[in-house]
Specification:
Blueprint: H1 24-46, H2 59-64, H3 76-86, H4 109-121, H5 131-147, E1 154-158, H6 161-176, H7 180-183, E2 191-196, H8 201-209, E3 217-220, H9 230-242, E4 246-253, H10 265-275, E5 278-282, E6 307-311, E7 323-327, H11 330-337, H12 371-381, H13 383-405, E8 410-412, E9 420-425, H14 429-441, E10 448-452, E11 455-461, H15 469-492
Parallel strand pairs: 2-3, 2-4, 4-5, 5-6
Antiparallel strand pairs: 1-7, 6-7, 8-9, 9-11, 10-11
Helix pairs in contact: 4-12, 5-12, 6-8, 6-11, 13-15, 14-15
The structure holds pyridoxal-5'-phosphate.
Length: about 500
């Protein structure tokens, strides 16, 4: 509808400002920039293999970020040019086929389109009557099915595994002692949580944030394969009960961050049932493997958990940030977070006529349309292909392990149920550090590091749909080459 012009002589060109283009010509010019951005970004992804996996920024680039406040604007072409010149060339590197550091997803062009579309539509995922909320419902429904959770379970997309674990442990705490929501933890008994020594640091942080304190975490020893000793966990629970503590949760690992070890989730499920404590699975890295027929049995017991947190932005190829938490008992989940405020109360009709508010299931009120990139990824590629890629990564890890084992100058940490291989040159820690630095700094590849048994290891975590076996062979050759060079240099001295 056009605004009516009341007074003759008054121009329709109002004084109010907007961030949109103001004329058909301006929209067309912006569209040209947009199409160039799409073309450039696809070229950039298509040619990713031709660039180094990582490269350091020069001092001039670093200095270029030290600029004055941009009080006045500039044409978007100029802003985009600056992005192309000093941001785009210096990524973390995880888009590259030879990036195997930490646990990262390379993303896909399809999911990048989803990010653009999500931002264009820009819905607010508190849980109103709109299609985006249906998309999140649908994505959660698919993942309940894939991970063996009942339809009645609740769930939430979150920023990452760290938030997912926090949400789940908050539910466990509120279920054990509903009063803490009102009174805080001060009046409550001493609550304890059990997890292996290999457990990700975010679990400890969750307990700190929840007011239970890091001391509430009982770190249970692991076996030679770095899986939690379930017998030790049972003993710790019994000992704590005798001493007046109240065990509220056990945390199982579906893929530890250091080596990808998967705890015996079925035994942990049985222990939790026996002890009547919440069973949470940190599946940030590895829960995704349950969708892969060849790996599924490794995660047996996951479907008996009270809650699971897992990342889409790790092994499911979705760009940052995106993760999920599922909770079997939807009422317990809601009770831990529900809030009453008239300004977001569900109404009988209209935009807010939806009883299920996502904001009742976590710490975020305003939430973005994370679900779209998962939805477009799953619909476009299909679950079977995502599963095959996970299996492919595991096979690549086995290939790398076999190759390392065949090299007399390399040794390997003999654990890992999934996609992680830890290796080192048969030399001291300093040489292995130097090998890591040279491989990263040359842009040849990006493994990361881990300390196991007081020794420094190169850690290769393959959650990358772009990686090929050749890349891994080339990486081993490069480790051997640098190792031999360091050795020769040392002998000369
Ligand atoms: C990465 C990781 C986390 C943390 O997840 P974020 O998505 O980084 O917040 C937790 N646990 C394990 C096992 C992980 O690999």
């Amino acid at each position: 509808m056009r605004p009516k012009v009341k007074h003759v002589g008054m121009t329709t060109d109002h004084h109010e400002e907007t961030l949109d283009p103001r004329s058909a010509d301006e929209w067309a010019a912006l569209g040209a920039v947009g199409r160039r951005i799409i073309d450039d970004s696809l070229d950039w992804l298509r040619s990713v293999r031709e660039r180094p996996a990582w490269r350091p920024m020069g001092a001039d680039v670093v200095r270029s970020f030290d600029e004055d406040l941009p009080r006045a604007g500039q044409p978007v072409e100029k802003t985009y040019r600056e992005f192309v010149e000093r941001i785009l060339p210096f990524p973390t590197g995880n888009v590259h086929p030879r990036f195997w550091g930490w646990v990262m997803s390379p993303g896909t062009p399809v999911a990048a389109f989803a990010e653009y579309l999500a931002a264009t539509m820009n819905p607010m995922l508190l849980g109103y009557v709109d299609a985006p909320a249906r998309v999140e419902d649908q994505v959660l429904g698919w993942w309940k099915e894939l991970l063996g959770f009942p339809k009645s379970a609740s769930g939430l997309l979150v920023s990452g595994g760290s938030s997912g674990n926090l949400v789940a442990l908050a539910v466990a705490r509120a279920r054990a002692f509903p009063n803490v929501l009102r009174e805080g933890v001060r009046g409550a008994p001493s609550m304890t949580v059990y997890a292996s020594t290999e457990t990700h640091a975010c679990v400890r942080r969750a307990l700190e944030v929840l007011g239970l304190g890091a001391a509430a975490l009982r770190s249970i020893p692991v076996d030679a394969a770095r899986r939690v000793r379930v017998d030790s966990m049972a003993e710790a629970i019994a000992r704590d009960r005798r001493e007046g503590h109240v065990p509220i949760a056990i945390v199982g690992n579906a893929g530890t961050v250091a080596t990808g070890a998967v705890d015996d989730l079925a035994a942990l499920a049985a222990l939790s049932e026996r002890e009547r404590v919440w069973f949470h699975v940190d599946g940030a890295l590895g829960a995704a493997a349950r969708i892969a027929p060849k790996l599924r049995s490794k995660l047996a017991g996951l479907e008996r958990a009270d809650s699971v947190a897992f990342d889409f932005h790790k092994w499911l190829q979705v760009p940052y940030e995106c993760a999920c938490v599922l909770v079997r008992d939807a009422d317990a989940h809601r009770r831990a977070f529900v809030h009453d405020a008239s300004y977001v109360a569900p109404m009988e009709r209209g935009v807010a006529a939806r009883a299920h508010r996502y904001s009742d299931y976590g710490v975020q009120l305003s939430r973005g349309f994370r679900a779209l990139k998962v939805w477009m990824t799953m619909k476009t590629f299909g679950v079977d292909k995502l599963a095959r890629l996970i299996e492919q990564n595991v096979e690549q890890a086995r290939h790398l392990a076999a190759r390392v084992d065949s090299e007399p100058m390399l040794e390997r940490e003999p654990s890992g149920d999934l996609n992680i291989v830890c290796l080192r040159w048969r030399g001291d820690d300093a040489s292995n550090r130097e090998i890591l630095y040279r491989i990263q700094e040359s842009g040849f590849a990006v493994p990361s590091q881990v300390v196991l048994g007081d020794r420094f290891w190169l850690r290769v975590c393959i959650s990358n749909h772009r990686t090929r076996r050749d890349d891994l062979d080339a990486f081993v050759d490069e480790v051997l080459r640098i190792g031999a060079k360091l050795e020769a240099h040392r002998r000369l001295r």
